[in-house]
Design brief:
globular; 5-stranded antiparallel beta sheet; SH3 type barrels; 80 residues; 41% strand
Length: 80
């Protein structure tokens, strides 16, 4: 099963990516693919042809795990 994660990295904007398995309690790294910003744009400090990125967990404040299909349903601030 593929999980969509939102990584909140220290001193950086949140980054979205997919992973095959969630990091375990004793993990020191998280591996994600299809890395992008929350708005879907490319991350400026990652090369275009990169397929997977490995981040040390000590650089991540927290990780959000998105439910299936919920990523498309995220709506920003909307005034009705």
């Amino acid at each position: 099963m593929t999980y969509t994660l939102v990584l909140h990295i220290m001193n950086s904007d949140p980054i979205v990516g997919e992973t095959e398995e969630l990091p375990a309690a004793n993990s020191t790294l998280v591996v994600v693919s299809n890395v992008r910003r929350m708005d879907g744009k490319d991350v400026h400090f990652i090369a275009e042809n990169t397929t997977k990125v490995v981040w040390p967990l000590d650089r991540i404040n927290f990780i959000e795990v998105m439910g299936e299909g919920l990523e498309e349903e995220i709506i920003g601030f909307v005034r009705e």
